[in-house]
Write a structure and sequence with these properties.
Number of domains of chain B: 2
Structural class of chain A: alpha/beta
Mean pLDDT of chain A: 94
CATH class of chain A: Alpha Beta
Largest sheet of chain A: 8 strands, mixed
Low-confidence stretches of chain B: none
CATH architecture of chain A: 3-Layer(aba) Sandwich
CATH superfamily of chain A: Thiamin diphosphate (ThDP)-binding fold, Pyr/PP domains
Low-confidence stretches of chain A: none
Oligomer: heterodimer
Helix content of chain B: 25-40%
Largest sheet of chain B: 7 strands, mixed
Shape of chain A: globular
Distance between the termini of chain B: 49 Å
CATH architecture of the largest domain in chain B: 3-Layer(aba) Sandwich
CATH topology of chain A: Rossmann fold
Number of helices of chain A: 10
Strand content of chain B: 15-25%
Radius of gyration of chain A: 20 Å
CATH superfamily of the largest domain in chain B: Thiamin diphosphate (ThDP)-binding fold, Pyr/PP domains
Number of strands of chain A: 8
Helix content of chain A: 25-40%
Distance between the termini of chain A: 56 Å
Number of domains of chain A: 1
Largest interface: A-B, 42 and 49 residues
Number of helices of chain B: 14
CATH class of the largest domain in chain B: Alpha Beta
Structural class of chain B: alpha/beta
């Protein structure tokens, strides 16, 4: 594997290999994300978790929807699927049910997972489908230029809420826990080690494992809401985050206001039968009755 | 090609329902994954699949909506399974998004549409043929589709098997455009011995070749590109964006040209092997009825009735409405003085028939809700003969 030639006027290439080359499709770099975006940090954590995991690399599947985070799968040197907007979890359900031995991970944005795909999210959590879902929440639709969505805090300004957002946002960890997921966490792009560790735990969990990762989005959400510099929101996460694994999930909505706390942690980690286990039991019961009989 | 195996319905003669016959055909074709959402008048397919699939080691799962069930099929298809769903008009509309995904990703799958009456919710319990154009044009951005149209319980069984074979060979979504009459009809079904049922197997990518990064994974010069299956170690990127020969997203015009031509061309260049049709009384015909599905049963009655009135009528029954058998219709139009297209809608397949005909073409149309009466078709024949 060699790195691409430095572009005219670009930085001088000083290294030929990177520690993440075995999991990253280096030939596809540079990536499309804006300077200061948190998605790259999440990808780094994702890659290290994969490297740490004992699950064979060929069984690791990465599935994305559409949007900024939707581009993650395409940069990973795994079986990767860039599907339709909002449908990554439904696509993943089909794959994870048809081949339960695969370690299926969905990584996508808040609009994709929590809004247009919100129905698939809650029903996959309800069925407790054995899969991992990483939702990078940047509080707005970034790829389309910064419009408000179902996670945009009340009052926040975007191109489609120029006078302040008048919608109440989803508190997604609370929603997914209520729907029945085995594992629910929230961290931020500031919590690199915690994101990696949580993802490693998610791969072990039998059932629906969900992690929200809050991310800066300097050019759109940040620009209009007091975090224009790439470090502004990272500093906000650093100063305002409170780790509370036993938090009352009904109280952990994110306002993104400088005076408010951001509650993070591994909130839920419980044993419930996974959908695949129940389906496998069903097939065993039916075949014990003998094929051909109803 | 191999033959049907393990767990399927035993060979012999049965008296059964179209929707049940469809499920048994699917199992013999090797289908082991069903993702559905209940909808009249297709629900017996899902119910039967829920009984039968676990018996043969498969899964029949219910999704939260038809958007999700079609997405799940594409995922399961890439897991290596032969996959299917069944629906009707409203569900067909919701599935369009991920039918496009399956087309773009080249995911084999079979969709059964048991068509019902009318736009929107229409009349769920009664017959219609109003989704024929949607089958071809419903998904955005230039797609080519393969669709079968059965007119009996036997054909619903046979065409379901053929739909799986076509889906696997062409690596594309394939529709069986049934309707409420065919789906709920009880008739004789003959199930041949398994060794007489041809079953197509998927062309699968060699992971060793795939890992060579200089090698084009998707060779668009080839008609049929081997499919990367999840977990086999090929580590291929499969993308809904326009992609190059590595599967990576591109905005390059040349790749767009190559990829879109490949997707359409693999169907357009093989239309003659896909087309199926049946001719009745056409040898001496002066007027031809073109029809399909349950409407073709009325059409055959109309042809026989017209002959008693001295009109030399014949029937061309389209068993594969898509890709449209243009050469077949064009040849027919040179032999007859007029064509009547009989269908239970306001006039859909009449358009490609007219586009490809050298003689006058009129529609015999009937508001969805019941099977078209033969007299309507006879009247249209008389009108076209006089003109």
């Amino acid at each position: 594997m060699t790195w691409p030639e430095a572009q005219q006027g670009g930085p001088e290439v000083k290294v030929q290999h990177h520690l993440n080359d075995d999991v990253i499709r280096s030939e596809r770099l540079p990536n499309i994300w804006c300077p200061g975006c948190g998605i790259g940090i999440v990808v780094g954590a994702y890659v290290r978790a994969i490297q740490k995991s004992s699950i064979p690399r060929n069984r690791q599947i990465s599935i994305s929807g559409i949007g900024c985070t939707g581009r993650v799968s395409g940069y990973l040197n795994l079986d990767s699927y860039h599907t339709t907007h909002g449908r990554a979890i439904a696509f993943a359900t089909g794959m994870a049910v048809a081949r339960p031995e695969l370690e299926v991970t969905v990584i996508a944005g808040d609009g994709d997972i929590g809004v247009i795909g919100g129905n698939h999210l809650i029903h996959a959590a309800r069925r407790n489908v054995d899969m991992n879902v990483i939702m990078v929440n940047n509080f707005n639709y970034g790829m389309t230029g910064g419009q408000h969505g179902g996670t945009t805090p009340l009052g926040a300004r975007t191109h489609t809420s120029p006078y302040g957002n008048v919608e109440m946002p989803f508190n997604v960890p609370y929603l997914v826990a209520a729907a029945g997921a085995s594992f629910v966490a929230r961290w931020t792009a500031m919590h690199v080690r915690q994101v990696t560790a949580a993802f490693n735990r998610m791969m072990e969990v039998k059932g629906f494992a969900f992690m929200e990762v809050l991310s800066p989005c300097p050019p759109t959400f940040g620009e209009f809401n007091g975090y224009p510099d790439p470090l502004d929101m990272m500093k906000y996460f650093k100063d305002n985050s409170v780790v509370d694994n036993n938090a009352d999930l009904s109280q952990i909505a994110v306002s993104a206001r400088p005076e408010d706390k951001v509650v993070v942690g591994n909130f839920v980690d419980r044993k419930r039968p996974s959908y695949q286990e129940l389906l496998s039991d069903l097939r065993t019961r039916v075949s014990a009755q003998g094929a051909g009989k109803k | 090609m191999s033959t049907a195996n393990g767990g399927g319905i035993k060979p012999g003669d049965y008296f059964t329902m179209g929707n049940f016959a469809c499920v048994e055909g699917a199992i013999l074709a090797g289908c082991r994954f069903y993702a559905g959402y209940p909808i009249t008048p297709s629900s017996e397919i899902f119910e039967r699949a829920s009984v039968r699939f676990p018996q043969v080691g498969g899964n029949a799962i219910e999704m939260e909506d038809e958007v999700g069930s079609m997405a799940a099929l594409v995922g399961a298809s890439f897991a290596g399974a032969k996959v299917m769903t069944a629906t009707s008009g409203p569900g067909f509309s919701l599935m369009m998004e991920n039918i496009g995904l399956a087309y773009m990703m080249e995911a084999p799958l079979v969709l059964i549409n048991v068509q019902r009456a009318g736009p929107s919710t229409g009349i769920p319990t009664l017959v219609g043929q109003g989704d024929m154009m949607q089958a071809k044009w419903g998904s955005h951005g230039d797609v080519e589709m393969i669709a079968y149209s059965p007119n009996s319980v036997q054909e619903f069984f046979d065409f379901t098997i053929q739909a799986f074979n076509a889906a696997e060979k062409f690596r594309t979504p394939v529709f069986v455009m049934a309707d409420q009459v065919v789906g709920m009809m009880w008739e004789k079904l003959h199930v041949p011995p398994a060794e007489e049922i041809e079953v197509a197997q998927r062309l699968v990518m060699d992971p060793a070749v795939a890992l060579d990064r200089e090698h084009p994974l998707f060779d668009y010069a080839r008609d049929f590109i081997p499919m990367p299956i999840a977990g086999m170690g090929a580590r291929v990127n499969v993308d809904s964006l326009t992609h190059d020969s590595r599967g990576y997203p591109t905005t390059d015009h040349n790749w767009s040209e190559k990829m879109t031509r490949h997707l359409a061309g693999k169907i357009k260049d093989h239309t003659r092997e896909i087309w199926r049709w049946e001719e009745s009384f056409l040898d001496d015909a002066e007027v031809a009825v073109v029809s399909y599905g349950s409407a073709a049963r009325s059409s055959l009655a109309a042809v026989k009735s017209a002959r008693t009135k001295g009109i030399r009528a014949g029937l061309l029954r389209l068993q594969t409405p898509w890709p449209f058998p243009d050469e077949v219709v064009e040849k027919l139009s040179r032999r007859v003085s007029g064509i009547v297209v009989a269908e239970v809608n306001a006039g859909q397949m009449v358009h490609p028939v007219r586009e490809n005909s050298r003689c006058p073409v009129v529609g015999a149309n009937w508001a969805p809700g019941s099977l078209i009466e033969p007299r309507v078709i006879v009247d249209a024949m008389q009108a076209v003969v006089v003109s």
